[in-house]
């Protein structure tokens, strides 16, 4: 039997260790590493070439969505499964957008996580069914560029100069960003972008 090799990344709490022990019991799953820091991940991926990376979120002082995006761009053969207690629809949509293959809530059963790992290995994505009905509008590239400068406390005039667009165009993009993110202020947009992993 060819086993599915996976790494698990988490804070190594009792919860993370319990998840690891549950997964180790499955005959077709093989734990090739357990990490407490995403900083060690690149080395472990190169050494073990895992099929799956399970991120037990949140990880202290780390943004798991930014790391998911980085993993999927650098190591597309390793599919990311996010296990999180934060099951807000926007967060799950952001996880999907940055390339995660599955999202599993910590309220779900162990069987759900195991199924998600197997499905991800088969290149089938596993996300909550209600996600299809959630009205999510992704930000365009220019909106992300504007948002990045908003987070750096740039004024509309400064943003316009840096991106070579008019102040009125910047104002239009800012309004669109606030509407799409369901926030009322520029600071709210920046804070939410960091939370969702849209900015580093």
Describe this structure in words.
Helix 7 packs across helix 8. The chain folds into 2 domains: 130 residues, 3-Layer(aba) Sandwich (Rossmann fold); 55 residues, Winged helix-like DNA-binding domain superfamily/Winged helix DNA-binding domain (Arc Repressor Mutant, subunit A), CATH 1.10.10.10. It contains 9 helices and 5 strands, in the order βαβαβαβαβααααα. The mean pLDDT is 85. With 200 residues, the protein is of the alpha/beta class. It has a 5-stranded parallel sheet with strand order 2-1-3-4-5, sandwiched between helices.
Task: Give the topology.
Blueprint: E1 4-9, H1 14-24, E2 29-35, H2 41-48, E3 52-57, H3 64-74, E4 79-84, H4 89-97, E5 102-105, H5 110-121, H6 141-151, H7 156-163, H8 167-181, H9 186-195
Parallel strand pairs: 1-2, 1-3, 3-4, 4-5
Key features of this structure:
9 helices; Arc Repressor Mutant, subunit A; Rossmann fold; 200 residues; five-stranded parallel sheet; alpha/beta; elongated
Q: What is the average of the pLDDT values? A: 85
End-to-end separation: 41 Å
Q: Give the amount of beta strand, in percent.
A: 5-15%
- Counting DSSP H or I runs of 4 or more residues, the number of helices is 9
**CATH H-tier superfamily of the largest domain:** Response regulator
CATH fold type of the largest domain: Rossmann fold
Summarize the structure.
With 200 residues, the protein is α/β, with parallel strands linked by helices.
